[in-house]
Structures are given as C-alpha cells and as structure tokens.
Amino acid sequence: MENYIEKKQLDEASKNEARKNEARKNEARKNEASKNEARKNKASKNDISSDTTQLISIDNPKSINNKNVDDEGKKIIKRERIDKNNKEDNNFIIDDLEKQTDKISMNILNILKASNIPNCDILKRTNNRFAKAFLYLTEGYKMSVKNVIKKSIYKRKYKNNTLIKIKDIHVYSLCKHHLLPFEGLCDIEYNPDKYIMGLSKFSRITDIYARRLQLQEDLTNDICNALKKYLKPLYIKVTIKAKHLCINMRGVKEHDAMTVTHASYVSKKNVSCFKENINLSKNEISKSDSHDQSLS
C-alpha cells in the first residue's frame, strides 16, 4: 500500500513538472513573438521616417529638420497637393491618414457612449465609417485651387463680348454651424477678357471649396474671388441655390426652404458689359417664369 501511494505521488510530481516545463516553453514562445513584433514595428517606423525625409528633401533639401520630420514619421507631406507659389494653399503638413481616422473614430465612439445610444452589432464600426466619411468631405483643405486653374487657362482667340455660363453644378458641403449637410446647384457666368478656362475646372473649383466646412455665403464668394484672381475677367457672377438640413430637419423645420446667394465682380474697364449681362439675366429669368406659369 505504501509503495502504491509513493508511486502515485511520484507520478503526480512528474506530471506537475511536465506542466511547468510546457508553461515555460509557451512563455518563451510568447516573449520571442513579442520581440519579433517589436522589431518589425521599429523597422516599419524607420521606413516611414526615411520615406518622409526623402519626400521633403526632393522638394526642399533645406527643410529637413526636427520640426518637419520626427523619428516616428508621424507627419507626411502631400507633395502632389502643395503649390509652392500659392501662399493660401502652401505648406500643408497633415497627420498620417490612418492616425487621423483613429483619432476621429475614438472621439465619435465617446460621443455615442455619452449619448446613451443602445449598443448593437451595426454600430460596432460606425465611428470608423464616420471618420473616413468626414475626412473625405473635408478633403478640400488639402487641395490647391491654383494647381487646378493654372493648367487649364488659355488665351482667347476672339475678342468679342462673349458671355459664358456654366449651370447646375452640384454642390455638397457641410455647414460650419451644425456640421449638417447642405446641397444645391451653382451657376457661374463670366465675360472673359484675355483668358478662358477649361469648362470642367469650374466644377472642380466648386468641389474644392465645397469640401470644406462652409457657410453658403462664404462658399459663393470663395468661388467668385478665385475666378476673379486667376481669370481676371471683365465680369463674373456666381449664384448658389441650396437646401440646408440644419433648417429642414431641425430648429424651425422649414422643409421646403431654399437659400439663394450671389457674388459678382465687374471690371472698371467694362461697366457697359455688366449692364448688358444684367439685362440678359433678367430676360432669361422672365422667360423661365413664364415657362413655369404655362406648365402650371
């Protein structure tokens, strides 16, 4: 009986020792895997840092310093969207897109929690989806209007009094007040002097300014001022007619309310052109009104 008990104790001790050895091996494997992961992360960060340094050195070798590039490569210069000669759009240094998305996503998650909204499966990645959508809708801050315009300006062949109209450019933007969308149509008309511009670029310029946090009044003037600055026309007018969700779905809840804004410029050397274009616009409006009445 004593031999049996002694043998059983030895077996149990042997099993315990085996378990300890297995636990040590598992711990060693985990430590090794952790070290390998740390090495990979360090190598990846060094690669990002070197790539960023290379980007900056190509643009401006003197710009390499601790302010522009940190060891972890946290900041990347988007060269393709930087115009060195344009003070308004120059020197855009933005956080890595993934890091920006993570920051916004975490804060939106906190907002959802603070709002006591019941959790469910479909909300698991809502904060991340919102972050990506928001960065897309505000991407206009990283775009250069001058880069779009300067490649598409041409000298005029004819010197006659030509009125050019681009109508029904779709506008989608976020209101500065509530971060709610507003959408509408933009009409641009101008009388060129020496230069004209590719027609598609009017839509691109409108989109660049619309994909920023905006007031409709400011958006209208932003477009008008940019075209005035680079095209130097004899006359230009920008009109936006839009519906704001901050009015339609909250507050006063005016579901059919529309906001119309105008911005215009007339060159001093062509006031007569301005009067002529005003008359043309009035005639067009009256024709449109009479057409609407006939339809009704």
Automatic annotation (TrEMBL):
<dbReference type="Pfam" id="PF01227">
    <property type="entry name" value="GTP_cyclohydroI"/>
</dbReference>
<comment type="pathway">
    <text>Cofactor biosynthesis; 7,8-dihydroneopterin triphosphate biosynthesis; 7,8-dihydroneopterin triphosphate from GTP: step 1/1.</text>
</comment>
<dbReference type="GO" id="GO:0005737">
    <property type="term" value="C:cytoplasm"/>
</dbReference>
<dbReference type="GO" id="GO:0005525">
    <property type="term" value="F:GTP binding"/>
</dbReference>
<dbReference type="InterPro" id="IPR020602">
    <property type="entry name" value="GTP_CycHdrlase_I_dom"/>
</dbReference>
<keyword id="KW-0378">Hydrolase</keyword>
<comment type="similarity">
    <text>Belongs to the GTP cyclohydrolase I family.</text>
</comment>
<dbReference type="InterPro" id="IPR043133">
    <property type="entry name" value="GTP-CH-I_C/QueF"/>
</dbReference>
<feature type="compositionally biased region" description="Polar residues">
    <location>
        <begin position="46"/>
        <end position="67"/>
    </location>
</feature>
<dbReference type="GO" id="GO:0003934">
    <property type="term" value="F:GTP cyclohydrolase I activity"/>
</dbReference>
<dbReference type="GO" id="GO:0008270">
    <property type="term" value="F:zinc ion binding"/>
</dbReference>
<dbReference type="InterPro" id="IPR001474">
    <property type="entry name" value="GTP_CycHdrlase_I"/>
</dbReference>
<dbReference type="GO" id="GO:0006729">
    <property type="term" value="P:tetrahydrobiopterin biosynthetic process"/>
</dbReference>
<feature type="domain" description="GTP cyclohydrolase I">
    <location>
        <begin position="110"/>
        <end position="265"/>
    </location>
</feature>
<dbReference type="GO" id="GO:0046654">
    <property type="term" value="P:tetrahydrofolate biosynthetic process"/>
</dbReference>
<feature type="region of interest" description="Disordered">
    <location>
        <begin position="1"/>
        <end position="69"/>
    </location>
</feature>
<protein>
    <recommendedName>
        <fullName>GTP cyclohydrolase 1</fullName>
        <ecNumber>3.5.4.16</ecNumber>
    </recommendedName>
</protein>
<feature type="compositionally biased region" description="Basic and acidic residues">
    <location>
        <begin position="1"/>
        <end position="40"/>
    </location>
</feature>
